[in-house]
Amino acid sequence: MPYLPKTTSPVATVFFTRPDSGGNEITHLFVQATDGKSTDLIKDKKAKASFNGWSFNKKNLYYQSNARDPKYFDLYRMQVNEKPEGKVTTNIAYKNDDGLDVSSISDDDRYMALVKTNSTSDGDMYLLDTQSGKRN
Fold first, then answer.
1. Strand, helix or coil at 114?
2. Which of 14, 40, 48, 100 has a 20 to 30 Å separation from 29 between CA atoms?
């Protein structure tokens, strides 16, 4: 099975996305243990997921998925531990109800730059304070 680009975790766990199955365009996020065994982290077989990046401190992995609502991609934060076979702690870092895209996250994970694409040449940018929930 071919895989899309890999990224190596700072704690030696390998995360990667898998291309769609049979042309269905539904990609998932997998974790591969040191023994080579892969585990699908997205339980909903109809949901899409894609890798978004690492937190500045390298303790969290960010990914997008439309598991909650097929119309929108929420941003999830996954706490990375040394043993991927154990329980994985995941929570929604940004619940997307407005069709905005997360473009960047501050080094302390407090602020997110959100973008609304209006057209190919026009967009709006917002700054979300994740602690207060205020968006400017």
1. strand
2. 100
Show pLDDT as tens, one digit a residue, over the chain (136 residues).
444 455 666 654 555 666 667 777 788 777 766 677 777 778 888 899 888 888 998 888 899 999 999 999 999 998 876 555 555 678 999 999 999 999 999 999 999 999 999 999 999 999 999 999 999 9
Q: Which DSSP symbol is given to 9?
A: -
What is the DSSP-derived secondary structure letter of residue 98? Answer: S
Residue with tokens 């960047």: 104
CA–CA dist 38, 36 (Å, integer)? 6
* Of 106, 114, 119, nearest in space to 64 by CA: 114
Judge if pTM exceeds 0.85. no
- Cα–Cα distance, 40 to 78 (Å, whole number): 14
